Amino acid sequence: MRHIGWVDAETEAPVSDADIKKKYEEHLLNHCGIRIIEPELFDGYNPGKKTMHHQVAVDRQMPPIELDDKDMADRFRQQLGEDNVHVYQNDKGVWVLRLRKGAVIDVPIALRFDRFVAGQIPTGWSAQRLGIPDDLAKNCDPVTL
């Protein structure tokens, strides 16, 4: 027979109304609503490790940089522009990149970020547990659900 009322999501055991606050208050306060960002809920996004990029113009031709392979050399050439790089294979067969004077590159810089809270979907929340079909839950934004 199916239970009507509160059910513990992990144990699937019924929980009486009178025990809800005692059993779950701390967990709910730590994992629901506006709270410190939980990186595991945001594909590892961590505001404490936030970086920005600063554009720097190269003021002289730079020394050669060895690359892994031609594919990597082509990606640098595509990103930086044909006029800004000299890409070649040296006498040892290693692909090399030289930044030319005037090339503009993005240099990562540490950013002091002071926003560590966000309104987040409760940790462990599942639309399927509320009866939403799997195909709809997988194809719909979780905030919308």
Describe the structure in brief.
With 145 residues, the protein is of the alpha+beta class. The chain has helices at residues 20-31, 70-80, 134-138; strands at residues 6-7, 14-15, 33-36, 51-57, 65-66, 85-89, 95-99, 104-110, 117-120. The chain is elongated, with a radius of gyration of 26 Å.
Topology diagram in text:
Layout: E1 6-7, E2 14-15, H1 20-31, E3 33-36, E4 51-57, E5 65-66, H2 70-80, E6 85-89, E7 95-99, E8 104-110, E9 117-120, H3 134-138
Antiparallel strand pairs: 1-2, 3-9, 4-8, 5-7, 6-7
Please characterize this protein's 3D structure.
With 145 residues, this protein is α+β, with helices and mostly antiparallel strands. It has a domain at 51-110: Alpha-Beta Plaits, CATH 3.30.70. Helices cover 19% and strands 26% of the residues. It contains three helices and nine strands; from the N terminus they run ββαβββαββββα. It has helices at residues 20-31, 70-80, 134-138; strands spanning 6-7, 14-15, 33-36, 51-57, 65-66, 85-89, 95-99, 104-110, 117-120. The strands form four sheets. It has a three-stranded antiparallel beta sheet with strand order 5-7-6, covered by helices on one side. Strands 1-2 form a two-stranded antiparallel sheet. The chain has a two-stranded antiparallel sheet with strand order 3-9. Strand 6 (85-89) and strand 7 form a beta hairpin. The two termini are 28 Å apart.
